[in-house]
Amino acid sequence: MKIAVISDGAWATAIALLLVKNKHDIHLWGPFPEYIEEMKISRKNTRYLKGHALPDEINLTHSIDEAIIGAELVVLASPTQYARKCLQDISKIGLTTNQIVVNVSKGIEIDSLKRISQMCHEVLGKINYVVLSGPSHAEEVVKGVPTAVVAASENSDMSQKVQNTFMNPVFRVYTTEDVTGVELGGALKNVYAIAAGISDGIGLGDNTKAALITRGIAEMARLGVALGGQQETFSGLSGVGDMIVTCASSHSRNRFVGEQMGKGLNLESIKEKMGFVVAEGVETTKSAHALSKKWSIDTPIINEVYSDLYDGKDPRQGLTDLMTRKAKTEFE
Q: Which of 106, 114, 189, 209 is an active site residue?
């Protein structure tokens, strides 16, 4: 089938390479015409995903009309804070009742505090929507490293279609109906990855990181359930699974941000160091912090990461404050 991939970032490119191996007709859209032309000539994405050739079967385009018209699946892969602009461009074209929007981004819009599904329905109206999430670094997916993710939709026929489209011997897809939980798990784990990176940057040990991950899972589920997600989802691929890989992997951009903070760099210096690369957790921390306050949910790790990022708090003091809070039972 024809599939449009909206974005030319690392994950979008990995998705395009995965789907073209599954024999689909892939149209990869990028926002910058000059860079798309550069990619057409080099057949490489040197800015976001180095070391992997783009086969001629992947059609590169700056025309969102060309990408979307006639596509059975429209894969949204732009960073969350740019998603609304992409959706507005798509709305000018219009989607047919047969087209399926597949979101693979992981974040929460800052101004509205909305998830991607909420933005999609707000901008595009009633659409066929599926979110695909889980522990899936682009750098490993393109190498064929065995990976498992989950596709969530309120319509099981839609999630099964996405499951069948993406699955192959090294990329396994499960299904669920819990769109809210899957989206929140994918977004919130990035905040905890920053916390884990801070621990690494300071030079603390495995005990500390294990505690952060475990308490982060509990905190993520507490906030996620309050916002409408299902408890069991946060124990699955988009919750615990994505938390483990993002907090532990050298590929994790969010862990990298935290690590640099732990070494004493400020956020602006870290952003300069990362260049074009986006760490979704930096902005999601604002959204998660605002949501926890709005719904009066206790989120001490999110609060400390927010203070470290935006209030100039010393990360070492943040960890001390986490450790010296009032004693509780484990499941409070």
A: 189
- The question of whether 189 is a catalytic residue gets the answer yes
What sign for the dihedral angle of Cα 285, 113, 248, 322?
positive
pLDDT at residue 331 in the model: 86
pLDDT tens digits, one per residue of 71-89 = 999 999 999 999 999 999 9
In whole angstroms, give the CA distance from residue 11 to residue 51.
14
Which residues, in sequence order, are CB contacts of 216 under 8 Å at separation 6+? 189, 192, 195, 196, 243, 247, 301
Sign, CA dihedral 170-175-179-184, equals: negative
Give the pLDDT band of residue 276 (cuts 50, 70, 90).
confident
- Domain spans of the chain, in order of start: 2-179, 181-323
Q: Are 162 and 173 in contact (CB under 8 A)?
A: yes
Q: Does domain 181-323 have CATH number 1.10.1040.10?
A: yes
> What CA–CA distance (Å, rounded) separates 231 from 234?
6
Q: How many Å apart are CA 87 and CA 92, to the nearest integer? A: 9
Per the listing, tokens 């499941």 go with 331
For 161, the token pair is 């279609």
| CATH number assigned to the domain covering 2-179 | 3.40.50.720
Which regions of 156-222 does DSSP assign to beta strands (E)? 171-176
Residue with tokens 């990176």: 197
Residue 181 CA to residue 52 CA, distance in Å, equals 33
CA neighbor of 191 nearest in space, from 253, 262, 146? 253
Does the predicted TM-score (pTM) go above 0.90? yes
pLDDT tens digits, 135-151: 999 999 999 999 999 99
What is the side-by-side strand order in the sheet with 128-133?
Answer: 58-61, 25-29, 2-6, 73-76, 100-103, 128-133, 147-152, 171-176
